[in-house]
Structures are given as C-alpha cells and as structure tokens.
Write a structure and sequence with these properties.
The chain is an alpha/beta fold. The protein has a single domain, classed as Rossmann fold (3-Layer(aba) Sandwich), CATH 3.40.50.11550. It has twelve helices and seven strands. A seven-stranded mixed beta sheet has the order 1-7-6-2-5-3-4, with helices on both faces. Helix 2 crosses helix 3, helix 3 runs parallel beside helix 6 and helix 11 packs across helix 12. The longest helix is centred in the C-terminal third of the chain and has 22 residues.
C-alpha cells in the first residue's frame, strides 16, 4: 500500500513551496520564544478556539491516479493497513478538520462499533509531541493531571488549541492512546549544529528518546529532494540563528523521520492489532521518503498508506503533478487560511 515515486521523478513545485512553509512552521514551533516556557505559561481557555467546520465545497478527494474518491473509500482502505500517514500543511485549517473527521470515522468503524473479532486498537500518533513527554501525555489521558499541568509540561505547538486539541480531546474521551512520536527538539537542534555523531554524547536515558544509533542515513532520493529545494543554508540560518559555518539540516530531518518511524514500530510491537493514524507535516512522507523509508527499515512487512492533504491552485480540479503523490490526495481550497 505504500506509495513510492519512481527514482528521478521531479518533485512538483507545490510540494517545494509548501515544504518551505512547513519548515518555517516547524522552526517557529522549535524556538524557545514560541514554546510554553516554564513560569510564563498561561493557557488560553479552550472555548476561545471553536473549531471551524467545512464542507465538500472546500476540499476534493482523489485517489493516486486522480480519480475522484470519497471519505467512505478512505475509511474502508484504512482497515486494510496498520499505519496511516495523514500528511498536512500545518497552517491549513481544512486539513485539520479532515484529520478529525477521519479519526472519528475510523474510530467508529474499527473500535466503537466493531465486532470484538474485528476490533482494532486505535492509536493517534503525533509529530507534535516528543517522546520524552509520553508519561505526561498518558497521565493527562488517564485524568491523573489536569490540562494546565499537561500543557505546562509538554511544550505544545503554538497552534495546539486551534488544530490539535480537538483530536487529543476526542482520543481522551474514547480511550484511545496518543503516541508522542517525535524526537526532542533539543537533540534535533544539536544535530543541526554538529551532525549525527553529536548524538553519541547523549546519556543512555536520553538515547531512549530518539531512534536507535546509528541511524540509517537518508536515502539518495531524500538527498535529491533536499538538493532540489536548495534551502540548506537559508532555512537553517532561520531555524538556528546562532549557527555559523556548515549546517546539518538533512541530518536533523533524518533524526525526526527515523524517530517517528521507530516510535510507530515500537507501538506496533507493543499493541496487538494496532491501527495507527500518524499526523505529520507531509514532507516527512513525500515521495515515500522520510518516515515510510525508516519504518520499512525497522519493519519490512509493514502495511501502510499515505494520505496527503494539500492546498493547490488547481482546486477543485486535480493537478496532474500530484499523481501518485499519495495513496489518496485531498486538495483543499487555497483561499482558506489563517
């Protein structure tokens, strides 16, 4: 079920542009100024952020070939795999709306209303939480701690309330596990400065919060994508203003991808009949590179599916450049944003 573009295929411009934007969003979520700093945390009331509802007028669903599809067909196909990657552009409210709808429909079909013999253990896996906060996340889901203490400890993204709180709230209500899948940003920052070998200096405990060392190098296809983007210098200077000399942006990206894949692999081992919905910026699964490549490395027989949700000027028509860019491609209205 995994989608992989053929070697040498040019990356569509829409992916290049939105990847740059996604990196900027990740950068914004990685700096000290934009995280909830201890002693300065004042969570806004949840009721101030009312999730927006959208209709089919704001999105269109296609299969890999560009043929129109439906949410019903997506939910059916989800039942045939173990892992579903829900790729998003972090600033797209329509994408976040669709992620919640897919989570709800999947939970109803394979968890709440399924016969016991066919019931799957739904897991919401998220790039937006890092592995070292899993215990705090679990305590919140089990009602051991309140929301204030939860958010003061887990370093939430700036757009947590608007875009991810509804998903976590739904998981909590329906007894779904939420997986903190990502590598701690402090280690990603270190790798961006010094390269992957800098991870060898971490303590034994710290190393449990990242993928096992040595991490599989990025594929040649991933390297080619980075070369095409031509952002190594400018984007890394934006992300880490104190860096001088050569940067290691690809190593940092590879740490993200490998750690998320390893988190998913661990969960598949620990949870019988798991069905994992993983949220990530869709560059992490673009062209079948990134997380899918690492997951295949850890678990060669894994069954997975990629759903890309992208803004595109071709909306509502299918853009041929997006053909085979995912098992399903959902195009959203480019005029709807923050």
């Amino acid at each position: 079920m995994t989608m992989l573009l053929k070697k040498g295929k040019t990356i569509p411009k829409i992916y290049l542009l939105t990847f740059i934007y996604s990196w900027a969003m990740l950068i914004g979520c990685s700096t000290q100024e934009d995280t909830m700093i201890k002693g300065q945390f004042h969570p806004s009331p949840v009721f101030q952020y009312k999730p927006k509802k959208f209709s089919k007028n704001q999105y269109r669903i296609y299969d890999a070939t560009g043929k129109q599809a439906s949410l019903k067909s997506i939910v059916y196909q989800i039942g045939l795999v173990q892992v579903v990657f829900l790729g998003e552009m972090h600033s797209d409210p329509v994408a976040h709306y669709l992620q919640e709808i897919i989570l709800r429909k999947t939970t109803d079909r394979y968890w709440n209303n399924a016969y016991s013999s066919k019931r799957r253990q739904l897991v919401l896996s998220m790039e937006m939480f890092e592995r070292d906060v899993q215990m705090v996340l679990d305590e919140y889901l089990l009602n051991i701690i309140d929301e204030h203490h939860f958010l003061s400890c887990v370093r939430p993204w700036r757009n947590y309330y608007q875009d991810y709180h509804p998903l976590v709230k739904y998981a909590r209500k329906n007894n779904l596990k939420v997986l903190a899948a990502n590598a701690p940003r402090r280690y990603v920052h270190r790798v961006a400065q010094q390269g992957q070998l800098a991870l060898n200096d971490l303590s034994a405990i710290a190393k449990t919060w990242i993928a096992p060392l040595p991490i599989k190098p990025p594929s040649e296809n991933m390297k080619k994508i980075f070369q095409e983007l031509q952002i190594n210098g400018a984007m890394m200077r934006l992300a880490h203003k104190n860096i001088s000399g050569k940067s290691h942006i690809l190593d940092a990206q590879n740490l993200w991808d490998a750690t998320m894949a390893y988190s998913i692999d661990e969960e598949l081992s620990n949870t019988p009949r798991a069905l994992i919905l993983h949220l990530n910026g869709y560059f992490h699964t673009l062209s079948g590179t990134g997380i899918p490549e690492h997951l295949i490395h850890y678990r060669p027989d894994v069954r997975m599916m990629v759903i890309n949700i992208v803004r595109n000027d071709s909306f509502p028509e299918f853009n041929p450049q997006l053909k085979n860019s995912g098992d399903f491609v959902i195009i959203t209205d480019p005029n709807i944003g923050r």
